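Risk register update: the risk that structure generation would not scale has been downgraded. Supporting records follow, first protein first.
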Amino acid sequence: MTEVVIGVGASSGASAAEIGALIGAVLEEAGLAPEAVRCVATADGRAGERVVRAAARDGGFPLIAYPVDVLAQVEVPNPAEATRARTGTASVAEAAALHAARPLGGAPELIVQKRRSARATAAVAWIGPPGPDGPESLGKSLPKGHGGA
C-alpha cells in the first residue's frame, strides 16, 4: 500500500474545515484514500493552533510537529521568501511532509507539491521504501487529544 505524509501550513484565520478540505483535495489529486496517510506534519507553532489539531483529529491522522529551524534546512521545490520572513522557514507544508517521511522510508518524494487555499497550504510526500525509524525520532509527536493518535 502507498503510504504518505501530508505537510500542512496555516495562516491566522484558517479554519479546521478549510485545512480539512485542502487535505482532502491533495489526497484526491494524488489518487489516495485517507487510509494512506501515516501522519500530518507541520511546524511547532502551527501544531499548537486549535484548527490544525482539529483538522488532523477530524481526519483521524496523528499530528507531528517540527521546529522551524529544522524545517528551514529541508530542500524544497517551492520555497517562499514571504513565508521565510514570517516564520523563519521558506516552507512549512513541503518541508514538513518531506522531513516526516524521511525516517519512515528513507527516500521521500513529493507526489503533490504545495497547494494553497485562502489561508492554508498542503503537500503530500510519498514515504518510499521502509526505513528504520518513525517520525517521532526527528520531531515532537503531540499527545492523544491534541491531534496525536
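Supporting record for the second protein:
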Amino acid sequence: MIESLCGPEVNEDYIAHVAALDEKLQQRPPDESHGLVAMQTVAGQELHPDMEKLKSRSLVKIREYFLSKIGELRKPKTNVQMIQKAGLLKYHGLMHFLRRHQPEIADEIRATYEESMGRTLHQLFKAYHSQLSKLELDIATKHDLIVVEEPASKSMFSPKSAPASKRTDAFSSGDRANILDSVESPPILVHVALAEEKRFPHEAILRSVLKHLMDAVTNEYLFCIDFFEDRSGEAFNTILGKTVSLILENLENYLFSCWDSIGLLIMIKLVHGLRMVMQRRHIPVLDSFFDRINLLLWPRLKVILGAQLKSIEQTSPKRLGSITSKPHPMTRRYAEFASSIFSLHGGMESLGIAGGGEDMLLNDLMNLRIGFLKLLKRMSDELSTTKEKLVFLVNNYDQVLSLFRDRHVAGVELTSFEELLVHYRSLFVEEELLERFANMITFVQNTERNTTPGAATTVPGASPQDLSHRIDLAQVEAIVRGFAGMWRSGIEAIYQDVLECFADFRNGMEILKQVLTQLLLYYTRFQEVIRREWGRQPPSFSAELVSTATILVEIKKYSRQL
C-alpha cells in the first residue's frame, strides 16, 4: 500500500489503497476486549505519524492528478466527456477522500474545474456561433412591409434581392414551422452545411445552439452531482454563466435588426418545446434562461407588428401605384402574413407558453385586419365606377379567403372576410344586372314597392288595387320586347364580363351563377307582375314573353362550361 500511495501512478490499485488508508484514518468503534479506539492503542499511536504522512502525500498527489486532468480540458479539440468519464468520474472516490480530510483542496479542485470548464464551453459556443453566422439566411428586412408605397418600392436603397412589392417569402411560413416537429434533432454540422452550401433561417441556428447548450447543461448537471455531490445547481451556474450570457447577447444583437415576425413566433414556440425536453430530463436549471429569451422575443415581435400596422394605417392610396380592379400585391402579403401567424399561434394558449403574449398577438392581428379593410375601402374609392369598386373589393376579399382556407385559418378572421365577400358579391350581382337589364329591374322593384301592404297609405284615398292599375302598358310592352330581343346576348355579355373581372376562376364562376340566378328571379317576378295585373286577359305582347324553361336551358349551357 505504501509503495502505491507514494508512487507516481494513479490507477485502480491506487484508488483501493486510498480507500484503505481512509478507513484506517477514521475513528473506529472501541475494541470489545480492551474498550479502546484503535488509534489509542500503543501500536496505533506509533503508526499515527506515518499514517498522517501517507495522508498528506496522498492529498498532494490527488490534488496534482485532478489539476492535471482539469488542465487537459483547456486544450483545443479535447474530448471533454472522455476526460470527465475516464479521468475524473472514475476517480470520484479520491474526491470523497479530499472532502473528508482536506476540504480546502476539494474546494480548490471544484473552483478550478468550474473556471476551466466554464472557459472551455464559452470558447466552444463562441466559435460555434461564429461559424453558424456564416450560414444564416436573411429572410426579412425593414423594407418588407405589408404595404409599401410606390417611391419606397423603387428606392435605390431598397434590398436588391427582390422588389418589396413582389416579395412574399418574408410573410409566408412555408415549411419553416417543420422545425417545431424536430426540436431534438442533431444540431447543424457546420462543415457539412458549408460543403453543401446550405443556408438556414435564424430559428434553425438558434435551435442548434440551444440543443448544444441543453446537452452541455445535462452533462454538467449530472457530472456535478456525481463528482462534486452538488445538487444545488451552484456549480452549474458558475460553469455555464458566461456561456448563457453569450447566447443571450448574440440573440439581442440579432433582434436589434430583426424584422422576421414569422421567425420570432417560431422561436417562441421552439423555446417552449426545448423547455419541455429539459423538464422530461428532470433538469430545471434552464427555466430562467428560457424566460429571459421570451422576454427578448415578445417585445421585438410587438415592434414588428406595430410597424406592419403603421404601414397599413398611414399609407395614402395615391402612393400605391396604379390601382386596378385586380387583387393588389399587398393583399397577398397580408393574407400570407395573417395566415402564417394564425397557423403558428394555434395551441399557444392551451400550452400556456406565452404568459399573456397570445392575447397581445390576437389583439394586434385584429387591429391589422381592421386597418387592412379600411385601406382596401380607401383604395376602392380611387376607382371611377361603382362596378370597378365592387370588383376590386370582391377580388381582394376572395384572395384573402383562398389563402386562409388553404392554411386552415378559422374563427372570426375567416368569418369576417366571408361575410364581406357575400355582401359585396350581392352588390356586384345587382350592379351587373342593372348594366344590361335596368329597365326590367327598376320596373319590378318600383312596382313591388308600390303594391306591398302599407304602400297605398302613402297616397291618400288609394288602395293597392288602384295603384296596380297605374302600370304603364307601353312601358311593360317595351320591356317584354326588349328582353326578348337581347336576353341571350345579355347573358353572353355577362359571362364574358365576369370572366374578365375576376382574377380567380372559381370565384368568377360562383358569381356568374349568382348573376344568372338573380336574372331568372327578376324575370320571374316581372312575369308575376303581368299575371297579377291582367289575369286571364293578358295583353297581346305577352306572347313574346320568354319562358323560364327556355332561360334555364340557356343558363345550363354556361353551367356546363364551369
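Residues 29-33, 160-166, 454-468 have pLDDT under 50 and may be disordered. On this basis the risk owner (M.S.) recommends closing the item.
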